[in-house]
TrEMBL record:
Compartment(s): Membrane; Endoplasmic reticulum membrane
Region (Disordered): 20-60
Biased composition (Basic and acidic residues): 39-60
InterPro entries, A to Z: ER_stress-assoc
Function: Interacts with target proteins during translocation into the lumen of the endoplasmic reticulum. Protects unfolded target proteins against degradation and facilitate correct glycosylation.
Keywords on record: Endoplasmic reticulum, Membrane, Transmembrane, Transmembrane helix
GO CC annotation: endoplasmic reticulum membrane
Organism: Neurospora tetraspora
Protein name according to UniProt: Stress-associated endoplasmic reticulum protein
Length: 93
């Protein structure tokens, strides 16, 4: 017959708790994984470069939040109506 001591019982409980604590931690979401990969890629690109080289890369002009396609569509809506109105007044009067 095996006798359990309080110390061995405590070790058993601690091992069980640590096992469940590891299992209960959630995995990375795809969004977190993409962010981590982007950060890792950025850090690898910075490795071995001076601060001046890194700052030059950061100082590039930011991209426009509106694509060129939507700017053209908006321009056509605003100015296209004006052009059609002027043409209709010139040729139909």
């Amino acid at each position: 017959m095996v006798r359990s001591t309080p110390a061995s019982a405590l070790r058993y409980l601690l091992r069980e708790y640590q096992g469940t604590a590891r299992r209960s931690s959630s995995a990375q979401t795809p969004q977190q994984r993409r962010a981590n990969l982007k950060f890792q890629k950025d850090q690898e690109a910075r490795r071995g470069k001076s601060e001046d080289q890194i700052k030059k890369r950061v100082e590039k002009a930011p991209k426009s939040p509106i694509s060129m396609f939507w700017l053209v569509v908006l321009g056509f809506i605003v100015f296209g109506g004006l052009v059609f109105e002027v043409l209709s007044r010139l040729f139909l009067n």
